[in-house]
Backbone:
């Protein structure tokens, strides 16, 4: 699987384009639809949203209209697994930054939205954010292996092993 990172919008949101067998999935089409479109050369089989903040869905309508692809988000994912064409994800509810935060795990790669960043976690002081829910989400993710690669909504890629000590800090 190939993963392309497209920095979009004035908050430099990480939009991810996953490609396998000439099919693509877009995760968090935050803004700058033209930048996203420029890296895609095949069929888009799905659009996934880690949460509904504007910097992660700013180009959602344009992307959906252009590719005529189904959108997968907190509102319509009812299972802890999601299969889109030849992509198989574990869906991890990870509220805290927002009530509708979810992370997508595929092939030891976690697309965490604004749940986990390199060196910190997402803010919990926005409407529908909750430090209590964030702490429960952190407890849940700490059970995963250290070599899990974290693809955050902003900033650099990291591993869960590098972040575990930081994450434990937020539990005190």
Residues:
């Amino acid at each position: 699987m190939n993963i392309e990172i497209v920095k979009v919008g004035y908050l430099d949101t990480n939009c991810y384009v996953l490609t396998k067998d000439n099919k693509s999935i877009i995760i968090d089409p935050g803004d700058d639809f033209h930048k996203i479109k420029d890296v895609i050369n095949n069929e888009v089989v799905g659009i996934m949203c880690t949460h509904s903040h504007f910097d992660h869905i700013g180009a959602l309508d344009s992307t959906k209209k252009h590719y005529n692809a189904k959108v997968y988000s907190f509102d319509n994912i009812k299972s802890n697994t999601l299969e889109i064409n030849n992509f198989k994800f574990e869906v991890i509810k990870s509220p805290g930054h927002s009530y509708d935060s979810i992370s997508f795990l595929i092939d030891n790669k976690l697309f965490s939205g604004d749940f986990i960043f390199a060196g910190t976690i997402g803010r919990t002081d926005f409407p529908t954010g909750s430090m209590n829910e964030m702490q429960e989400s952190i407890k849940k993710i700490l059970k995963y292996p250290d070599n899990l690669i974290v693809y955050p909504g902003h900033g650099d890629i990291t591993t869960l092993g590098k972040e575990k000590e930081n994450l434990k800090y937020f539990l005190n």
